[in-house]
Amino acid sequence: MTWPFARKALTFSGGVHVPGLKTQTADLPIRRLPFPDTLSIPLLQHVGDAARPIVGVGEHVERGQPIAEPTSDRSVAMHAPATGRVSAIGLAPNAAGHMAPAIFLEVNIDSSQENAFERPTNIDTLSAPQLILAIQMAGLVGMGGAAFPTHRKLALRVGQRIDQAIVNGAECEPYLTSDYRIMIEEPENVMRGIEIVLRITGAKEAVIGVEDNKPLAMAALRKCVPPGRPIRVQALQTKYPQGASRMLIKALNGREIPTGGHAADVHVELSNVSTVAAIGELLPAGRGMIERVVTITGPGVDRPGNYRIPIGVSLRYALECAGLRNNAAAVLSGGPMLGTAIARLDVPITKGVLGIVVLTEKELSLKPQPVYACIRCGHCIDVCPLGLNPARLGALAENQEYETMASEFNLTTCFECGSCSFVCPSNIPLVHHFRIAKASLRRKRNLQSRSEPGTNKSQ
Ligand code: SF4
Ligand code: SF4
What we know:
The protein has 459 residues and is α/β, with parallel strands linked by helices. It has helices at 128-137, 150-154, 178-185, 187-201, 215-224, 245-253, 273-285, 315-321, 361-365, 379-383, 390-398, 402-409, 419-423, 430-451, and strands at residues 31-32, 38-42, 52-53, 60-61, 66-69, 78-79, 84-93, 99-107, 164-169, 205-211, 231-236, 268-272, 291-297, 305-310, 328-333, 340-341, 355-360. Among the domains are: 124-285, Rossmann fold (3-Layer(aba) Sandwich); 379-451, no CATH class. It has 14 helices and 17 strands. Strands 1-14-13-17-15-16 form a six-stranded mixed beta sheet. The protein has a four-stranded antiparallel beta sheet with strand order 2-8-7-4, with no helix packed on it. One iron/sulfur cluster binds next to helix 13 and helix 14.
């Protein structure tokens, strides 16, 4: 049976057409980096609680061996990304600019990049709770940037019903192509991962949403759909932010996530395609997550590509392998729309890093432009995928009327996609204003909750 799919590319209302800038890396197959001398593996690379080391300083570890265990349901295991010796357990800088606990590994650089530690498992014999536990022990976290523990996302809360699994293969951010290469090179892993997700959640069908500028990825996936299975590949219009949860779900099945809600509230399990591929690859092999594919690209590198990088490799080392140019002026983690600037290069690549974009003075010098008054053209309102009024929000932000922004203009639902700033002819830094407003409101709420009698942080 051929599962029916809409021939027309689906989409949401609003959004913008941003330059794709993907040609530097889209056609380059995934490559491995040589091992560096040392790795630093942070014990907290996800949203939740840090893992606890189960190895001691001086201990020899094999590539793939568990080195830290979960400390709670909000935690995941960690594994040695290379064979070597634990040289220290202590504090290391992270991308957020803090010092955080990490395991340092002195790498045996002559060792093989084969995984030396695996426990092949017949996953067909595992129950849903056993599969969830296996995902936690494999150390899997969301690879689309959020780094939320995958097992927690898949474990249904009491009373929750999931009828559809949606796999996010949109990759709408400019420059990034790691998901694209995974879809082309590992479609079997994607299908295996989907089957596991369907079993865990009880969803009746799975839909992989892929932007229509990726026909090769769609063809590779469609070729791998097991006959008779309720898995379909659906084309989406190429438009930013097509890969945002709300937009993707709205485009694919018309459901709207309520304000402050999640995909599960509309009976959807939503996963990034690289996460699903990792589930399909690691679980049957009984392996842990020790590496990931990262797009390293932009005008600031000589050898852009999609690199399979061991977790814990320093960003500086990865960039040097990719040919960091002397004129590099800014390094972004993620794409230019939703990514964040990285202040230092001695931080490790972690499980949630999907791309590194290196810009030069040339691109940056295009940025500082004069800001003019709002001309009420309404472009920002047209493109806001949530139907917000960015012009009004911007005007309120200039007067620091943050409470009104939140109470009357739904500031908190804004997910800072940047579409409004992108189209504003007056160059008003709308998203920048919204971030400041949200930070100010957060600070105020924190102060209020601390000063309220009986408020207990741990509750
Ligand atoms: S208001 Fe927020 S959600 Fe709407 S376009 Fe601007 S950044 Fe995106
Ligand atoms: S796009 Fe800019 S100038 Fe136009 S209405 Fe919005 S804020 Fe005003």
